[in-house]
Design brief:
four-stranded antiparallel sheet; Alpha-Beta Plaits; globular; alpha+beta
């Protein structure tokens, strides 16, 4: 079964273009080092919930938009190897992050079900 790293973060609306440029570079780096897929999504219908919500999770302000992204790998071992190469890649060193990394939520997930894996 595949393995997925997931990310949720808040990007200031006036830094969306800078984030897109960073995402394009990150996508190329992850894919070149062995990721199977790389997806970046920008919030379009992400209401601020009463108790829980994507905006609440990352403490998004009115001038920020929520970004939800994920990277797919063959398995956990592949993910660990790919990420080691990604973290050493000079294209991502010293990047000026167009978002507050302290509010980014991320984690690794073992795939439970995938439609394309059905018999």
């Amino acid at each position: 079964m595949s393995y997925v790293d997931g990310f949720v973060l808040a990007v200031p609306k006036d830094k969306i273009e800078a984030y897109k440029a960073l995402a394009r570079t990150a996508c190329a780096v992850w894919m070149e080092h062995g990721a199977l897929d790389y997806v970046e999504c920008i919030g379009d219908d992400v209401p601020y919930g009463t108790l829980t919500s994507f905006p609440r999770a990352v403490m998004a302000s009115e001038d920020e938009v929520v970004v939800f992204s994920w990277v797919v790998y063959r398995n956990r071992e592949s993910r660990d190897a790919v990420n080691a190469k990604v973290m050493a890649d000079p294209r991502l060193k010293g990047s000026d992050m167009p978002f507050d990394g302290k509010r980014m939520i991320y984690g690794g997930f073992a795939t439970l079900l995938r439609a394309s894996d059905r018999d």
